[in-house]
Amino acid sequence: MFFTTRPKALLVVFVASLVLLLIQKSSAHSYADCIDWRFTNPKNPSWSDKNGACFGYARRFPIKAKPFAKLDSDGPNRHYQQSHKNPDPNHSLPCSDGKEGEEPGADETMGIPISAAYNGKDKRGRIIGVQTTSKPGGELCIRWPAKNHAVPNEKNQPVVIALSEVNPKKDPTQLEFLDNIIAKLDYKNCTDKGENTDIWPCGGCFKLPSSLKPGNFVMQWLKNDAVICDKIIRDRSTLGMIGRLLA
Ligand SMILES: *[C@@H]1O[C@H](CO)[C@@H](O)[C@H](O)[C@H]1NC(C)=O
Ligand SMILES: *[C@@H]1O[C@H](CO)[C@@H](O)[C@H](O)[C@H]1NC(C)=O
Is 99 helix (H, G, I), strand (E, B) or coil? Predict the structure, then answer.
């Protein structure tokens, strides 16, 4: 076992820093908002809050911090852009550590134990979402806000879903993630398209490989600016662990 048991209270040690409140982002980047979205009525599948609910989140995702689609202008923001100075996806940090990248933001580092990233509160004292639980071959529907990237004149770049091996001791490198892509989703699969194109809810559904062994996995949600393994990956964000896959 590489994870020691520590009291849940540990997370609370990181008291909210007032500095964070001063950061205001004006960028419009998408991010994975929900990892396990379930439609209330499968006959009316819609990504709107009115027509479904979320049952699993990315690491340290503050669930009630802001209305849908507004966490890219939060402090810290929820999206993660790999450094543009070294736009090499193979050697970029795969998960935001809150410090590196083009616009430092959310802390997506692995929790110790893993469950610590899904329990309690974030550094600003906001309640964070639970870990996603599924099973080998199970279907997951992931949701994201369109921001300004689902309008007709934007190129439709796929959302790429990549997976780690079972029970990784640390997060995969970006190259390892790109080596295990399990799904490509239509970024512009949005519903409830109102006047404000930034807040269109979008999402995609896919099946997990049925060959998975039960355990913990890290899953990455990735939106490219270019084709896979080409030079630049810009808007991206990681998903957290999928917990306890049931055989
Ligand atoms: C597109 O979104 C709908 C919900 O409106 C969902 O049922 C469907 O599975 C999505 N399509 C894909 C390919 O993910
Ligand atoms: C990243 O790795 C892949 C697979 O090894 C390789 O094909 C690609 O050229 C690499 N990309 C860069 C920018 O080095």
Answer: coil
